[in-house]
Design a protein that fits this description.
It contains eleven helices and eight strands. It is an alpha/beta fold and about 270 residues long.
Length: about 270
């Protein structure tokens, strides 16, 4: 069987991103999302989650950008700054991420899965904290951010090489998850084509999805004033991703290729 979780990052980032995620679920193929506890539109996302109980919600744990829920101070702005802070042991990683999980739980949301902003759980101390929290909070599905090969237009050489380099860590990654009794999908897609796909690329993706379970990561949204003023490279591309997730030809491609849409609750 081919089972596909279509999972949107950044729920809680801005109200227009939230609106796009819910639209992609109600009218398109989106089945799940992960919520940013320190997002500026967290309260709006919680309201929408209560209005949309079929949307499967997890934690989008943040150690880059935004503010700490533990200290109130700014988090590192970039991956190199985070790596430096981790090396100097300036971040209480587990405590910070635990505070984010508790904030989501206090909103009466019981997350089913976890991932991290900018895939920071590829760093060993972050992965250890995420796996521990996933086990402690019965949200044992953790994203495996290792794309299977894609040939979509617009995927440059550096993006492919980065994806391949991330894959070199997968053995250690899975050992940590196994130690904590956590699970992951059999396959993952989305890293290489983030911000670069339309309906045609999704139709092609459906053709090459392998047997087993796959998570497809996406970043849909409406590009309103809030998103335009936010610190992110993904702005107009979120609307293009949303249009692709809503496209009738993508749903036809799912049926033609024998793919079942699922979420983490039902896996």
């Amino acid at each position: 069987m081919k089972r596909l979780v279509v999972n949107a990052d950044d729920f809680g980032f801005t109200p227009d991103v939230n609106a796009g995620i819910v639209e992609a679920h109600r009218d398109g193929i989106l089945t799940a999302t992960t919520l940013m506890a320190n997002g500026d539109a967290f309260d709006d996302a919680v309201r929408l989650a209560r209005e949309t109980p079929s949307l499967d919600i997890g934690c989008h744990l943040v150690l880059i950008q935004g503010h700490s829920l533990l200290t109130g101070r700014a988090l590192p702005k970039t991956v190199p700054q985070l790596v430096s802070a981790l090396a100097r042991r300036e971040l209480r990683v587990y405590d910070e991420l635990a505070a984010q999980v508790r904030h989501i739980q206090r909103a009466d949301i019981r997350p089913s899965h976890m991932d991290t902003h900018k895939h920071t759980h590829l760093a060993p101390p972050v992965l250890e904290a995420v796996a521990r929290l996933a086990a402690e909070n019965d949200a044992r599905w953790v994203r495996r951010p290792f794309d299977f090969p894609l040939s979509a237009p617009g995927v440059g050489l550096m993006k492919r090489l980065t994806s391949e380099a991330l894959g070199t860590t997968r053995r250690r990654f899975h050992r940590v998850l196994e130690k904590h009794g956590c699970r992951t999908t059999d396959h993952f897609a989305g890293f290489q084509i983030t911000g670069r796909f339309r309906a045609a690329e999704l139709v092609e993706l459906m053709r090459v999805i392998p047997e087993g379970s796959t998570e497809f990561m996406c970043h849909p949204g409406r590009c309103g004033d809030a998103l335009r003023g936010a610190v992110t490279r993904l702005k107009e591309s979120r609307e293009r991703e949303l249009e692709a997730l809503l496209a009738a030809e993508v749903r036809v491609a799912l049926e033609q290729n024998g793919i079942e849409l699922v979420n983490y609750r039902s896996l």
